[in-house]
Amino acid sequence: MLPSSSSSSLDGDLFAVMADAAPVMIWMADADARRTFFNKPWLDFTGRPFADQVGSGWNEAVHPLDRAACMDAYLTAFHDRRSFEIEYRLRRVDGVFRWVIDRGAPRTGADEARLRESESQLRRLAARFESAQESERASVARELHDELGQSLTALKLELARTVPDLLKQGIDPGAIDRLQSMIGIIDTAQETVRRLATSLRPPALDHLGLAAAIELEAAALARRTGIRCRVVGNRRVAKLDPVQTTAVFRIVQEALTNVVRHANASAITISINGTAASTSVKIRDNGRGMNADQMADPTAIGLLGMRERAELIGATLSITSNPGKGTIVSVVASAGAGDEPQRT
C-alpha cells in the first residue's frame, strides 16, 4: 500500500482493528517510502517486533539474493506513483524463507473520501454494537443474580432446614456431613454467580454511579492482587449519559487490568474530578512504564480498546509513560451544556 497524495490520513486505531482481522499481510508507508504500519498477520509471520520493522527495517527479512531487486522495484513504484507487484522471499518466524507476492497501490483523494465514509459507518456500527453488548451484559447479569442466584439461595435454605430433621431421625452422620458439604458447594456457587454478574455489569454503576463503581472496582483489585489502590479527587461526576458512563468505567477497568498484567506496580492512584462541564478520571501507577514504541504498538489490544471507547463517546484519552516511571491514563468526558455536577 502506497501513501496518499492527500494530507488527510486514516483513523489509525480503526484501521488497525480492520487490518489485524484481515487474512492477509498488510503494510502502509509514508511519502518517503518508509513503512509506518504492519498488521498482526505480518508481525506474526515475521516474528519480529514492530519497532524493528518500521522505516526500512522490514527489508532485513527479505532474502539477501532478492533484496536489491525488491527495493529497486519498490522505490521506483513510489517515485512514479504507480501500482506494483513484487515476488520475493521473506523470512518466516521459524527462519525459513517463503515466497510472497507483495502488491501495493497509491491512495488517491477519492479513495480517502470513500475510506472516511466507510470509517464513519463502521464507527456508528461500533457504537450501536457497544450499546447492544452492554444491554445484553446487563440482562445476563440480572438473570444470573435474580434467577440463578435466588434459586441457589432457596436450595441452600431448604438443605439447611432439612439437616436438623434428619438428625432427629437418626440418619447416618456420614450422610449429614455430605449434606453439609453440599451446602458449602452451594455457597461457592453463589459466590461464583455474584462474581460473574458483577463482572458483566457492576450493580454499583447503575445504582450508585460512576465514582462509587470505580471505588468498588479499586477496592476489589486491591483485595485480589495486593496492589495498594486509592481513589482521590472531588469525586464529582458531571451528568454523563449512560453510554458515556459505561465507556468511562470500562476504560478504567481496562487500565487497571493492564497495570495488573504488565506494569509490575505496587501502587495505583485514581483521581476523579468533575465540573459542570466534564468529568476527568486519571489512573496513575508506579510500575515499569512503557516506551513510545510500546504505546504506538498496533497489536496492543488493551490500549486500542481504550482509545476506541473514548472516541465512541467523544472523550479525550491520553496515555503518558516512560520506562521505569510508571504510566498515567487520563480520560475526560464532556457533559451537555448547563449540566450540574453530581456527587455519585
Description of the molecule:
The chain is α+β, with helices and mostly antiparallel strands. It has 3 domains: 12-107, PAS domain (Beta-Lactamase, 2-Layer Sandwich); 124-200; 205-343, Histidine kinase-like ATPase, C-terminal domain (Heat Shock Protein 90, 2-Layer Sandwich), CATH 3.30.565. It contains 11 helices and 11 strands. The protein has helices spanning 12-21, 40-46, 50-53, 64-80, 109-168, 173-200, 203-207, 210-225, 242-263, 292-296, 301-312; strands spanning 27-29, 35-38, 84-91, 97-104, 228-232, 236-237, 267-274, 278-285, 316-321, 327-334, 342-343. The strands form 4 sheets. A 5-stranded mixed sheet has the order 5-7-8-10-9, covered by helices on one side. Strand 7 (267-274) and strand 8 (278-285) form a beta hairpin. Helix 5 (109-168) runs antiparallel to helix 6 (173-200). It starts with 11 loop residues before the first helix and ends with a strand. The model is unreliable at 1-10 and 337-344 (pLDDT under 50).
Quick overview of this protein structure:
Helix content is 54%, strand content 18%. With 344 residues, the protein is α+β, with helices and mostly antiparallel strands. The strands form four sheets. The chain has a five-stranded mixed sheet, covered by helices on one side.
